[in-house]
Amino acid sequence: MGPATRLALASLVVGLVVFAIKFAAWNVTGSVALLSDALESIVNVGTALMAIWAVRVAARPPDADHPFGHHKAEVLSAVAEGILIVVAALFILTEVASSLRDLTVPNAPWAGIGLNLLAGALNGGWASVLIRRGRQLRSPALSADGHHLAADVVTSVGVAGGVAAAVLTGWAWLDPALAACVAFYILWSGGKVIWASASGLLDESVPEEEIVAIKRVIAARGEGAVEAHDIRTRHAGQARFVEFHLVVPGKMSVDLAHGICDRIEAGLKSELPDARITIHVEPEHKAHQVGALAI
């Protein structure tokens, strides 16, 4: 079992514990704001299950039906997570509309607030782990899960403060009003997750610093070639795809040209261990000269 899978399984356990705590907080208070926070935790459990599926599928080697691998499973999981977040927000707004017909100040508020803050603390600690490790493992599914949990911490703190304000002032309308604010914040958070994850589905280029590193390696390892041009990249989960045209002297043997390609590939893999590299060798009359990367 790889590190990404272990983290995804741990997220499921944390999600179930946090949901149980938040459900208990709502059960003792009857607060619709605390209910909204608990409902968002159901999404956390669902996204953890998707992350487990995604990291396991993404780790599969290429096969006849998927010759480029299964890396986009993680990207798809992150998009689905964003959609679930949006659905949860809409459900919360439905609960808010129902609660407006019978406004009451929450019962046993301090016990509920304490339980909610405990759940928020657990989410906060685990979110920092997921964001850090998701970045290290270049896992969109784990990173999306971590950022969602971080947003959940903000809502938990806000909900706890709002419920306390409703009790201290006696203004029962504060409870559903706060729940509505939570719902709109969750909608915004879900939209951000979908937008950030869609780049992987649209074959967005790798980050600029990685492009600079790719060009540096080609220039350093491409001795004997004339130039490199049409450098194109894309990313899908942990994988990086790099392809470009390498121009060599027309009279150079295939063996020598292949040796240059091997040197460049070795250098690129030292910079980007998960890179899949395709080099198209061309004779010198194919040189672009203008706008090409001379090496």
From TrEMBL:
It is found in: Cell membrane. The chain crosses the membrane at residues 7-26, 38-55, 75-93, 113-131, 151-171. It comes from the Bacteria. GO terms for biological process: intracellular zinc ion homeostasis. Keywords: Cell membrane, Membrane, Transmembrane, Transmembrane helix, Transport. SUPFAM superfamilies: Cation efflux protein cytoplasmic domain-like, Cation efflux protein transmembrane domain-like. It is a multi-pass membrane protein. Residues 207-284 form the Cation efflux protein cytoplasmic domain. Its main location: membrane. InterPro entries: Cation_efflux (IPR002524), Cation_efflux_CTD (IPR027470), Cation_efflux_CTD_sf (IPR036837), Cation_efflux_TM (IPR058533), Cation_efflux_TMD_sf (IPR027469), CDF_Transporter (IPR050291). This is Protein p34. It comes from Roseivivax halodurans JCM 10272. The lineage of its organism: Bacteria, Pseudomonadati, Pseudomonadota, Alphaproteobacteria, Rhodobacterales.
